[in-house]
Write a structure and sequence with these properties.
Length: 110
């Protein structure tokens, strides 16, 4: 859990990852929503589900918000991630559309 107040769709996605709830994860996104992980884009419900299966929920991921800043419809996070695929800290950019996520982007580290 975190002490950061996040937009509801962002919190819903994080909660879904931490609860290993693929359906809730997919439902956090708009119908044309996408995940962009270091430039690899997985779009629509099937793409979002695929990413959840390979890189997040299917990999036993746990996500911890370390810092967060929201401006308009965009929330930028710095988060901790622990899974069978990746362990460490990363940045994430979430774009909210209505009550869902339009996108979740993990930009490449430099």
């Amino acid at each position: 859990m975190s002490d950061h107040t996040l937009p509801a769709p962002v919190q819903a996605m994080i909660d879904a990852i931490n609860a290993a709830d693929t359906e809730a994860f997919v439902n956090a996104f708009t119908a044309d929503g996408f995940v962009s992980d270091w430039g690899t884009v997985k779009a629509g419900p099937a793409g979002v589900r695929d990413w959840a299966g390979s890189d997040a929920i299917g990999a036993g991921a746990q996500m911890t918000v370390l810092s967060a800043e929201t401006e308009g419809d965009t929330t930028r996070l710095h988060f901790g991630w622990a899974s069978r695929v990746f362990n460490g800290e990363s940045d994430g950019i979430f774009v909210v559309e209505g009550d869902k996520l339009a996108s979740f982007t993990i930009p490449p580290s430099h």
